[in-house]
Amino acid sequence: MINVSSRRCQATGCLRHPNFGFQGDRRATFCCRHKATGMIDVVSRRCQHPGCVRRPLYAMAGQRAMFCRTHKDPGHTDVVSRRCNFEGGCDRHPSFGWKQGDGKARRCAHHRLEGMESVKVNNRRGSAAAAAAAAAAAAATASTPAQAW
Ligand SMILES: [Zn+2]
Ligand SMILES: [Zn+2]
Ligand SMILES: [Zn+2]
Questions:
Q1: CA distance linking residue 9 with residue 7, whole number of Å
Q2: So which domain of life are we looking at (predicted)?
Q3: Which of 73, 90, 97, 146 is the most buried (most CB within 10 A)?
Q4: Mapping DSSP to helix (H, G, I), strand (E, B) and coil, where does residue 117 land?
């Protein structure tokens, strides 16, 4: 574990709290004054586009969110939000999913699919097992025309 509270900007003599690091860095090394070119704010939850203060939701898959919807690159995906994945677009929070699958909420109450149940419960434990179950469920439901994921 990193002792976050004791970290400082690595510029000589600077006592500021570091917010900036290189993309992909898990930890910040420099403050906003001393950041190097190309460093991004890896601490604050802000879009990395200069001047943009929106909440970041998009990044390359597997990275932490860095850009808002407006400033995302074409290759970026939404790595934060959990939204109803209704094909027509829906901004509601999902709370329905397949309990016998991965248990993840995928659809709002309006767009829940046949057989979906409320899965709001926190389901962090055993995600590997859940993923396996999801794969099995996906295979099992592959014949259902509505969804293919
Ligand atoms: Zn500094
Ligand atoms: Zn932005
Ligand atoms: Zn919806």
A1: 7
A2: Eukaryota
A3: 97
A4: strand
Q: What is the pLDDT of residues 17-64, one digit of tens each?
A: 998 998 777 789 999 999 999 888 887 778 888 888 888 888 887 778
Distance from C-alpha of 94 to C-alpha of 148, rounded to nearest angstrom: 18
* Nearby residues for ligand 2 (ion, Cβ within 5 Å): 47, 49, 52, 54, 68, 71
Report strand pairing: 20-22 vs 58-59: unpaired
Find the 131 Cα to ligand 3 centroid distance in Å.
23
C-alpha 124 to ligand 3 mean position (Å) = 23
Neighbour tally for 131: CB within 10 Å: 13
Which ligand number lies closest to the CA of residue 50?
2
Gap from CA of 50 to ligand 2 centroid (Å) = 8
Calpha distance 59→131 (Å, rounded): 22
Domain coordinates in residue numbering, the chain? 1-43, 45-81, 96-139
Q: Which ligand is nearest to the CA of 106?
A: 3
- Nearest ligand, CA 48: 2
